[in-house]
Structure formats: structure tokens, C-alpha cells
């Protein structure tokens, strides 16, 4: 056989092998895509600070764990009864309400590693969030309002990264909060969550304002930022059998024992109309959301 014929056959075989390889690769990607779509309420939050439009729903065997530089955590179910703009940040995700000029909720995944870092809040300033429309909250709305600029996702949970820290000072992550509540009870729960993350490895947190229907609406500033009647926080430990707990505080600064603020996740869901952990297995969700036992969580001693 001529050499030219041999070269032709070799090239033909090589081409077939390449096409076969590409076909197999495409089949694998398609299978992975189908697998990733099985749980629709998990959002894939890369640490690149990508825009909300790049948010992708994913599922992973290591739910809620860091893997390959990506943090995965569960978000509440979409809201149908109020305005909602989902904004993804490096350290948290916020559901923004253009009518109240505050969040519906803020969610984040707190790991042990995220409770440490060099970045300090003293270097940051509160700022408008240009990703939401006008009118929106500004620093002047809080000036002489007698309310603190209360963090939902706390700065203390974001010392691990400069951008994550900076984004906690955007006003979409801030609510008008009574000074005593901000300084004491709310701060105590924030510190406790960091201790739980250190001891458990990681927890999922969702918090936000409570607006009571039928109660007089109070606002601050020319942009009419609505003042919450209270605040909630729910925490999920998904490891093992799993457990969850909720806290509820009035926005009035009255001293409250932490145990008296404990609520089940079901209690807070009924109060807020938010479905917090919809992607959990139904049996597990029913069980963990129906009970709230502070003694089942790592011990935390308040130090002042």
C-alpha cells in the first residue's frame, strides 16, 4: 500500500477518535447539568463577587460546605406577596424590598474559617447600594433618626475577605435598629453564631426585619426607610440528623433573656410568611423546623 494511503487512513482514524472523545465529553456535561438541576433552591455563590444575573442553582453532595473555592448554601423560597430583588454578594445574599427600602431577608453560610481574618470594620463606611433603584436608603436617612444602622449579615462574619467586609456596609444589608438591641441582644446572638460555626464547622443563617400587619408604619429620612417592628434570625446545622433554631426580638431595646427570644423556625415562618429551608428533605425539614432547643447547641457564655 502506498504511503499516501497509509497517511490518509491514519488521519481518518485520528479524526474519528477526536469526534468520539468530544461526543463523550458532551454526554458527561449534559449528565452533570441534569444532576445539578435536581435541587433548585441551592444557589452557587462563587467568591468572585459576580453579579446577581450570574447566580446559578446547583446541588452538591457537600451541601453548605466549601468546595473548590465555592460556597453553597440554601436560600429561602421565592416570595410572591411582596417586592423581591435578589442580590448576590461575596459573603451573603439579600432579598431586597423596594417598598420598605430594606431587606426581606439576608442569608449566608458561616464557616469556621469565616469567623477569623484581618479585615476590620473600622476601615469601612456605610454606603448606598447602586444596584437598587431610587428612592433608596442613604446615610442621611439615619442622621438624627435615633436608630442605629443595624447590620443583618454582620461585619464580624466577614473579616475573612476585604470585599465581603465592605459589602456588609451597603444599605441593602442595613435596617433601622434600636441602639440597645443592636448593642446587646442582637450582638449576643451574632457572637453566639460565630462560636457555633467554630465548634460545628459551619452553619446556615437567615435574618431580617419583621413588619407587623395592621401596625402603624414608621419611617425615617426623606427616602422613607421603614422601621421594623422586630427582627428574626434562624440558624440551621445540616450535619448529622440536623437541627435548627430561631430568635425573635422586638425593635424596642427592652432587655430580653436569650432563652425567652427562642422560637421554632415554624413560628418565624408563620410570622414572616417566608419558607426558609425549602430544599431540605421533607421529613428532615418538618422535624428540625418544629423544635427549638437551645441546650442542643454548643454552650455559649455571654461576656460583657
3D architecture notes:
It is a single chain. This protein is an alpha+beta fold and 304 residues long. The protein has two domains: 1-36; 39-296, Extracellular Endonuclease, subunit A (Extracellular Endonuclease, Chain A, 3-Layer(aba) Sandwich), CATH 3.40.570. It is built from seven helices and 15 strands. It has helices at 3-36, 139-142, 162-167, 179-183, 185-200, 265-272, 282-290, and strands at residues 42-46, 56-57, 66-67, 70-74, 85-88, 93-97, 102-111, 148-151, 174-177, 202-210, 219-220, 225-226, 230-237, 243-250, 262-263. The termini are far apart. Mean pLDDT is 82; it is low at 15-70.
Produce a short descriptive summary.
27% of the residues lie in helices and 24% in strands. The protein has helices spanning 3-36, 139-142, 162-167, 179-183, 185-200, 265-272, 282-290; strands at residues 42-46, 56-57, 66-67, 70-74, 85-88, 93-97, 102-111, 148-151, 174-177, 202-210, 219-220, 225-226, 230-237, 243-250, 262-263.
Question: Which properties best describe this structure?
Answer:
four-stranded antiparallel β-sheet, alpha+beta, seven-stranded antiparallel β-sheet, single chain
The main pleated sheet reads as: 7 strands, antiparallel
Q: What is the class of the largest domain in the CATH system?
A: Alpha Beta
Structural class comes to alpha+beta
**Secondary structure tally: strands:** 15
Strand order of the largest sheet: 5-6-7-10-13-14-15
Question: CATH superfamily membership of the largest domain, which one?
Answer: Extracellular Endonuclease, subunit A
Q: Do you know the CATH topology of the largest domain?
A: Extracellular Endonuclease, Chain A
Order of helices and strands: HEEEEEEEHEHEHHEEEEEEHH
